[in-house]
Amino acid sequence: xxxxxxxxTLLALLLLALPLGALYLFDRPSIRPFAxxxxxxxxxxxxxxxxxxxxxxxxxxxxxxxxxxxxxxWAGWLxxxxxxxxxxxxxxxxxxxxxxxxxxxxxWLLFTVLPIDSITVRWFVPVMAILLGHTATxxxxxxxxxxxxLQQNRSQYDFLLGNGASQWQSLIPFIRTSVLxxxxxxxxxxxxxxxxxxxLLFCGILLGGFTPINAFAAMLYxxxxxxxxxxxxxxxxxxxxxxxxxxxx
Length: 249
Prior knowledge:
The protein has helices spanning about 5-15, 15-25, 30-60, 60-85, 85-115, 120-150, 155-160, 165-190, 200-205, 210-245. By secondary structure, it is mostly helical. Helix 4 crosses helix 5, helix 5 crosses helix 6 (about 120-150) and helix 9 crosses helix 10. The mean pLDDT is about 85.
């Protein structure tokens, strides 16, 4: 880390004076939670950056795939905690669904969509990271909705089974609500992408040397990939839950 980078980091941290000053004036008890959350986020980002630096230095797609597996397990743990479902029953389905869904979608983008000559760690890691981040957020909504609706309406599921429906046919109403739990906020946010999530990633791509047109194309590909990855991951998760016989009661 150069002296110049340290200096610019310290200058950037001075911007914290604004939110801290506002909290000091209007809500002093919130200063401590804000500072702790900020410090925790910085530490996580720093550790994440060190791991990515190591993956880049080794420059092996197998190591990068291992990194994706570890990140999927960690993300699955966070999803399970947010959904408040039993870890023993749902950790493997959630992690397996996210890892497989993100990997398949990411490989489709890398092999057939993105204009690259060969798949390298430099492309693999950022594509998979973006897909995994969005998919984990959507999995919280999808898995939570599926489990809660099935628990609350177990009699409907048993009624359909008792009247000759197959297990998959009996699960369709609950799968529908969990899919809508993912797609509804996505549909609502699509019209405001240019004002919300897109600018940050778009500017990052520009800083990486892309032209505005190429940056637009890359953003479009990633948005489509994020939506597809979320649905695929949820579908795989539900399939694993069904075949492991861990449907909620």
